[in-house]
Amino acid sequence: MDAAASKPSFGDVIDEARPYLARYVAAWAPLVAAYVTVFLFTTSTPFGWALFTAFANILVPVLLGLPVFVIVARWVFRAPAMVQLAAHMALSLAFTLIWYGLLMQELSLIGWWRFGEYTPTSFRGPALTWQLFQGLVLYFLIVAGAYVIVLMVRGSYLIAGLAQPPGDADANPADIEVGTRRVFVKGPDGYTPLDFDDIVSISGADDYCEVKTPVSTHLIRMTLATFEERLDPDRFVRVHRSHIVALARIQRVEPRSGGGLTLHMAGGGTVLASRAGATALQPFLVT
């Protein structure tokens, strides 16, 4: 496979980001609903303008919070405690000031659109203090959401006994010989066998793999690249940066936009193959 084929397309990037964007939007949904409801019931502005203003007000922190969410989830969370503290001090200050500036500009533009006159909006005294405090609260709500999502993905594995604690990384049973047909995966009731012949697909997220069979799902503390080294390349194909599939478990293949493929797997699930993954599957596609 040449370098051009393996280079991720814009569609691949969107596919990678979609699960995280969905979690981020879902976390905001109840707060947005509550804010809009309270705003509509406490303002004397005509309903249409009140609704527009409410959504405009909430749009700024939602969009500005997205890079904060990504930075915290992918980098800050992994850092030592003191580094996390310093990072949050810097990020919260930057977020609050940028949010306040954008909010003032937005309110000025809404006033210009509604009344036909542009008047710069700003707060002073206690009102300014309150606005900056709101910015800090919003920042830490976003951070709390990022930590909860990361802990749900990683910490739940530890609570369920599905992985070794992070400090025991050296004790992980990762030294599986190439060609091995069975491994034993730790679960709530001890170690249970996982036959490679039963694997339908393998998905990677950070330091974990989610291995699906027709009847079960196993969470393993091992990177997707490490797991891939143990698989027979004649039976398993990496069709995406985050997905490996068993050729014998593919039931149907459909083309999709951007040169990728949709793979319908045994058991009813689907896996999206990137353009590079479609190229890897090309030798198996005949007309």
What does this structure look like?
The chain is of the alpha+beta class and 287 residues long. Among the domains are: 43-159, no CATH class; 164-232, OB fold (Dihydrolipoamide Acetyltransferase, E2P) (Beta Barrel), CATH 2.40.50. The protein is built from seven helices and ten strands. A five-stranded antiparallel β-sheet has the order 5-4-3-7-6. A hairpin with a 4-residue loop joins strand 9 (261-265) and strand 10 (270-273). Helix 2 crosses helix 3 (47-74). The protein is elongated and about 70 Å long. The two termini are 21 Å apart. Mean pLDDT is 79; it is low at 1-10 and 154-179.
Briefly, what is this?
The protein is an alpha+beta fold. 51% of the residues lie in helices and 17% in strands.
List keywords for this structure.
287 residues; alpha+beta; three-stranded antiparallel sheet; single chain; 10 strands
Describe the secondary-structure layout:
Blueprint lengths: L2 H4 L3 H32 L5 H28 L6 H35 L9 H35 L22 E6 L2 E6 L5 E5 L2 E5 L4 E4 L3 H6 L6 E5 L2 E4 L3 E6 L5 E5 L4 E4 L1 H7 L6
Antiparallel strand pairs: 1-2, 3-4, 3-7, 4-5, 6-7, 8-9, 9-10
